[in-house]
Amino acid sequence: MDRERIEELHRRRQAVTEGGGTERIERQHSQGKFTARERLAMLFDEGSFREIGAFVNSRAQDFGLAGRDVPADAVVTGYGRVDGKLVYAFSQDFTTMGGSLGEMHAQKICRAMDLALQNGCPFVGINDSGGARIQEGVDALNGYGEIFRRNTKASGIIPQISVIAGPCAGGASYSPALTDLVLMVEGSARMFITGPQVIKAVTGEEVDDQFLGGATAHARKSGVAHMVYPDEQSLFGELRWLLGLLPANNRETPPRVDPLEPSADAAELIDIMPEMPNKGYNVEEVIERIVDEGSFIGIHPEFASNAVVGLARLEGRTVGIVANQPRFLAGCLDIDSSDKIARHVRFCDAFNIPILTLVDTPGYLPGIGQEHGGIIRHGAKVLYAYAEADVPKISIVLRKAYGGAYLAMCSRSLGADVSLAWPTAEIAVMGPEGACNIVFRREISEADDPERVRQEKIDEYREKFANPYVAAARGFIDDVIDPVDTRSEVLSALESLERKLPDTGDRTERRHGNIPM
Length: 517
Hints:
By secondary structure, this protein is α/β, with parallel strands linked by helices. The protein folds into 3 domains: 3-176 and 236-245, 2-enoyl-CoA Hydratase, Chain A, domain 1 (Alpha-Beta Complex); 266-430 and 467-498, 2-enoyl-CoA Hydratase, Chain A, domain 1 (Alpha-Beta Complex), CATH 3.90.226.10; 432-465, no CATH class. It has 21 helices and 17 strands. Helix 4 (103-119) runs parallel beside helix 5 (138-154), helix 13 packs parallel to helix 15 (375-388) and helix 17 (432-439) crosses helix 19 (450-464). The model has no long low-confidence stretch (mean pLDDT 89).
């Protein structure tokens, strides 16, 4: 064999792996950022990554690109193993033309996405790009469109996770928005449709890129980011854990691992619930005492804090968690929390993840802003998501479950397979105080001591209606349980539902996908 040709191969491969060169790699490191290949090394099992299209290069000839070498066309694509699971990925190379997307760059990403979909494997996109390659004009724009179409077709079939490790601006930001989870790095990551300069030119507003589209802004305000991490190492460490919770595709069930014990004594559940019905508490303390130790991962933890959603394990099996959070807005449902809950329910349903719903909500958040902002259409998403979901659905009313919010939070009416309640549950059309103000308005107003009569009526109403036993008597609640038994009851319910089939009778026919919020 011609040794010169083999040596040429190694020289060319070395040139590709060096990306934009030593100086630009050092500049990347000085900004606290890793290179495209270093990120893939953190994601995949050691030595398992195989690159696809390493020698692809730009075909553009205009604006100084004629004859210019663009190693790997500024993106590394391929596949590897994450704890043994096959995963496809792309990682944009900011050291080469700022990671800009051109025709061949997009073609490489699309090729990897096609292979991931054909083989039923999760897909991870690592974004660090200056945006469309202006020199390639409409070819670059077409490239984005091809990616968007594949994101949409893959939605609900294979898990898609986006990592934002640098700039992701303009049309580039729509691809992550079409995926299941968006993970951002504090300080270096930023996403926006129009940047600070454009905003200043059009509106006169001055803003820096982090305030406009940094990780904090998207985690707390826009809801675009699902999780935020202080550095890339912690992000990729948890990303590997996340992939372990998910199935490879919508025809498989999530992998099950060796069971673990709960993280705290279940007996403490009794002490978490305040004696005063209007006093808040942290529902995450309840979650931690039900699921396996250290297994709960919150999704959107800083956005719409009046609801908690996430993933966890119960005796080694993956479960989706949805809960009202009484610490914020008393656990009321509003526009943002409705979007948050609905999207998570659809995600779990797409990938065969059972859903555990913990209910403690006094209703929908009142206000002109909510009504004019569309709480009706946003709240309807929750109803639709739960009613459509075919996976096992278990709901537990911890305390308040009033009116339409009771129905929305996975009630029997919307298809809950197992409905349980704690003795502290209050299930009614509305809270005792509000109900008595309406039902006994005249009797209270005409009384010699209106406040005393009002309190008597509240106590009477709570005794007759604001408890779980009326709903249980009508079959809307399967059982009222001791809080200490919550974990064992949920485990028993999951075991009884292991063979549950969707209404169609064939789980392989289901394809729901995610609707961007």
